[in-house]
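Re: the request from the purification team.
They wanted to know what the chain is likely to look like in 3D before they choose a buffer screen. I agreed to run a prediction and write the result into the notebook, where they can find it.
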Amino acid sequence: MSTVLTQSYRRQRDHFEPQDLDPQEQRRLRGQLEQIDYAAFVSNREVLGQTLSRVDTGTFQKLAVLTANARARWAAEALRLSESGSAVTVDQTARLTAARTAYEELAEAYEALRRMVERGYLTLR
């Protein structure tokens, strides 16, 4: 079983990969898997295309700026805590965690939208 490292977590791939199939059976299985993948592609394209129909390059720029600002707030908060010279309190840790979580969620959303365009699920206006 392989894993894929994204920005903040590991996603496991749990695809059975038979090793002992004859070539004809392997071709048949690959054909079935291609049909499954195509059904997923069409479903993603239709659902995401309807739900996110207003996405354009300006949308990406706004999300990128929002993500950059969240990253800057997180880093600034960490630096502010380090300059105090005292032990970090539970409240300060919670604020820092909230800032990091906001940045990571926005970064993941940006990457997910980018993958949607790259895979052809979304067409930019």
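For the purification team: The chain has three helices and two strands.
Please add any questions underneath this entry.
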